[in-house]
Amino acid sequence: MRRAATGVAAVALMGAALAAPIASAKTRDFWVAAVPVTWNMVPNQHDAILGESYAPALTVLPTVVYRRYSPHWRRPEFNGAPGAGNQDLIPGPLLRARVGDRIRVHFKNLDRFFKRPHSMHFHGVHYRPSSDGAYVPGFSGRDGNVKPGRALTYRLTAGADSAGVWPYHDHSPSMHESIEGGMYGMLSILGRHERAPDVELEVVLTQMGQFQTIDGRAFVGNTPVFTALVGQTVQWDVMAMGSEHHTFHVHGHRWLTPDGTPRDTQTVGPAETYRIRWREEAPGTWLYHCHVEDHMMAGMIGIYQVRRRR
Amino acid sequence: MRRAATGVAAVALMGAALAAPIASAKTRDFWVAAVPVTWNMVPNQHDAILGESYAPALTVLPTVVYRRYSPHWRRPEFNGAPGAGNQDLIPGPLLRARVGDRIRVHFKNLDRFFKRPHSMHFHGVHYRPSSDGAYVPGFSGRDGNVKPGRALTYRLTAGADSAGVWPYHDHSPSMHESIEGGMYGMLSILGRHERAPDVELEVVLTQMGQFQTIDGRAFVGNTPVFTALVGQTVQWDVMAMGSEHHTFHVHGHRWLTPDGTPRDTQTVGPAETYRIRWREEAPGTWLYHCHVEDHMMAGMIGIYQVRRRR
Amino acid sequence: MRRAATGVAAVALMGAALAAPIASAKTRDFWVAAVPVTWNMVPNQHDAILGESYAPALTVLPTVVYRRYSPHWRRPEFNGAPGAGNQDLIPGPLLRARVGDRIRVHFKNLDRFFKRPHSMHFHGVHYRPSSDGAYVPGFSGRDGNVKPGRALTYRLTAGADSAGVWPYHDHSPSMHESIEGGMYGMLSILGRHERAPDVELEVVLTQMGQFQTIDGRAFVGNTPVFTALVGQTVQWDVMAMGSEHHTFHVHGHRWLTPDGTPRDTQTVGPAETYRIRWREEAPGTWLYHCHVEDHMMAGMIGIYQVRRRR
Question: Do residue C262 and residue A162 have CB atoms under 8 angstroms apart?
Answer without folding.
Answer: yes
